[in-house]
């Protein structure tokens, strides 16, 4: 019989209906958490039997002893990256290592600076969830003799090969659009912004491929949401409601925030009903501070598993750099059906 998986921070966050970052603050900086959220998190911890990990002393990377891994995350406010961190931390603890996390705040220059700090600290390895292409940082780490693994982005251009662990974003767009088409949508749109981001490009291509494969009267429309935040989706919902006859009947949103804002805007105006008139799917499956009025169907990213796989690749790299083979590992998303999308005849309607 397989061993039962340990309850983690992500489980507590899901049960309490808060972000992983809020649970982390509850455990480490309780003064930052409201009494209401403290009560929810405390109840979730008691119900699940979660046991917080012991706090370790501040690591001393340059000293002989416990190896320290540095993880530069794109944005700590995005729960994908805190989920990745949880997976990294699990593997590190299983192997007698420590990990320190640094937040790039979606700023490429800040990312460069943080990688420089880790190099100066002489960490044993660097895990890099990149803002955009990371050739400069990979090359800098390599020049310092530090192994580096890229997460949530493909192998960077213009440098020697590096391991990359990422979600298959082509599948994110394709599977989401296939679900819309399967349930009767024909005017499929992809609502996005920041089109220079690799993840956005791949999701768009996946949606387009699904629409092309469907043939018939299925059509594709690209909508610029003006941003990737809830307020951007909200404004888009108001705009689409102003001309309901021309609106798509199925929308894949590049971010869950856009999807939630879109639903709020559509339902506020009332000209288009979700999902009867418009089905909406989010592309991430992340925790958000605002709850969707209609539960959101999402493509759930394998964040914790991405962290585990990345750290396992790091261990292999560190053990024997001469024989380690660099490659790209694509992890598949999971479609989680909820009330924001229609159902086809015969579908389970209990979720």
UniProtKB/TrEMBL annotation:
Keyword DNA-binding assigned: yes
Question: Boundaries of each HTH lacI-type domain copy?
Answer: 7-56
Q: Which residues form a coiled coil?
A: none
| UniProt keyword terms in alphabetical order | DNA-binding, Transcription, Transcription regulation
What the entry lists under Gene3D superfamilies is as follows: 3.40.50.2300, lambda repressor-like DNA-binding domains
Query: InterPro entries per the record?
Result: HTH_LacI, LacI/GalR-like_sensor, Lambda_DNA-bd_dom_sf, Peripla_BP_I
Q: Which domain of life is it from?
A: Bacteria
GO MF assignments: DNA-binding transcription factor activity; transcription cis-regulatory region binding
Name of the protein this chain belongs to: Substrate-binding domain-containing protein
> What stretches pass through the bilayer?
none
């Amino acid at each position: 019989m397989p061993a039962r998986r340990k309850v983690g921070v992500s489980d507590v966050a899901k049960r309490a209906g808060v972000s992983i970052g809020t649970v982390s603050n509850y455990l480490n900086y309780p003064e930052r958490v409201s009494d209401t959220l403290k009560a929810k998190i405390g109840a979730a911890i008691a119900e699940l039997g979660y046991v917080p990990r012991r706090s370790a002393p501040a690591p001393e990377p340059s000293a002989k002893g416990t190896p320290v891994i540095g993880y530069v995350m794109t944005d700590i406010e995005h729960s994908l990256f805190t989920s990745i961190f949880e997976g990294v931390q699990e593997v590190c603890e299983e192997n007698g290592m420590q990990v320190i996390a640094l937040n790039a705040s979606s700023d490429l220059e800040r990312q460069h600076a943080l990688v420089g700090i880790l190099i100066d600290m002489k960490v044993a390895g660097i895990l890099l969830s990149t803002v955009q292409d990371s050739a400069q940082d990979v090359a800098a780490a390599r020049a310092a003799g530090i192994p580096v693994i890229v997460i949530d982005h493909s192998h960077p251009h213009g440098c020697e090969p590096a391991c990359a662990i990422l979600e298959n974003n082509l599948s994110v767009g394709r599977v989401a659009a296939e679900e819309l088409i399967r349930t009767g949508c024909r005017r499929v749109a992809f609502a996005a912004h920041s089109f220079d981001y690799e993840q956005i490009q791949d999701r768009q291509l996946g949606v387009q491929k699904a629409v092309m494969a469907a043939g018939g009267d299925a059509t594709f429309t690209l909508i610029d949401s003006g941003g990737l935040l809830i307020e951007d989706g909200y404004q888009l919902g108001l705009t689409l409601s102003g001309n309901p006859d021309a609106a798509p009947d199925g929308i894949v949103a590049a971010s869950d925030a856009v999807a939630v804002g879109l639903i709020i805007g559509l339902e506020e105006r009332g000209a288009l009903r979700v999902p009867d008139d418009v089905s909406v799917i989010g592309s991430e499956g992340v925790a958000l501070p605002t709850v969707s009025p209609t539960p959101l169907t999402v493509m759930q990213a394998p964040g914790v598993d991405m962290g585990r796989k990345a750290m396992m690749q790091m261990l292999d790299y560190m053990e024997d750099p001469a024989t380690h083979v660099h490659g790209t590992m694509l992890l598949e998303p999971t479609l989680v059906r909820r009330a924001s999308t229609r159902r086809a005849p015969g579908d389970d309607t209990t979720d």
